[in-house]
Amino acid sequence: MKKIVNPWIKLEKDGYNCFGCAPNNPYGLKMEFYEDGDDIVSFWTPTENYQGWLHTLHGGIQSLLIDEIAGWLVARKLQTLGMTTSLEVKFKNPITTGTCTQLEIRARLKEIRHNFAFISAQIRCDGRLCSSGELTYFCFSKEKAAADFHFTACHTVDEEG
Q: Where in the numbering of this chain does the Thioesterase domain appear (predicted)?
């Protein structure tokens, strides 16, 4: 498993403050990402600050975890950016904010058709499938990603030296 370098860190002074992945957003999830073969993986600990019902992780936060990892999959595997056009989440088992100490969020590219990436994602706690998502992502051209979003590449730590 290889840690992915956050390519937007250098843009913090310009306003980078993503709720999902900015490390210095005081309210954010501060997600970090890893490449594991064909998958992109993140590990995250649910706390009481993100609950919906008593001691249960809010479904919107679960959806955000799935959406965020899909974006990172596009950045790393396709070396561009895009936007979610469709997100379907199925909640299979509750995620408790007190006893589930670490979630594993995992995404995989299923197919690419034209400018659309079709992605599957899952959230697991202690090996148990809690939520799954199917996403469609519209992928920007590499030129648009660079010009509009300052994105040039997404590397792993070992690639950057």
A: 56-127
Burial class (CB in 10 A: 0-12, 13-18, 19+), 27: exposed
DSSP structure class, residue 78: S
Q: Quote the pTM value.
A: 0.94
Domain-wise residue ranges, the chain: 2-160
Residue 148 CB: number of other CB atoms within 10 A? 10
Q: What percent of the chain has pLDDT over 90?
A: 83
Q: End-to-end distance of the chain based on CA atoms, in angstroms?
A: 16
What is the C-alpha separation between 32 and 34, in angstroms, rounded? 7
Topology of domain 2-160 in CATH is Thiol Ester Dehydrase; Chain A (3.10.129)
138, amino acid identity: F
Stated as kind and residue range, the H or E segment containing 124 is: strand 116-125
